[in-house]
Amino acid sequence: xxxxxxxxxxxxxxxxxxxxxxxxxxxxxxxxxxxxxxxxxxxxxxxxxxxxxxxxxxxxxxxxxxxxxxxxxxxxxxxxxxxxxxxxxxxxxxxxxxxxxxxxxxxxxxx
Length: 111
Description:
111 residues, alpha+beta, two-stranded parallel sheet, 9% strand
């Protein structure tokens, strides 16, 4: 411990290592380290899924088994990520109205 720290105070470096920032990130799904695990029922479906995976730059382990139900949920989850919705900004009270009436927003559509 340095002389700058008071007696009984937790050293900041030790506290940081125990509870703070972690530099060991978990590999994302669909990469070489953690490929997708997909199950399909036919060879035709396997070719279609392989092209879809290759087009999106992903990695997958595809198993063809007609006795098991088809499972491509991991692929669907990655391809159909939700998109953040953005809204147009409403005009301020004293701005001209967006309906082109020539009035202020507060006198036209803002009331």
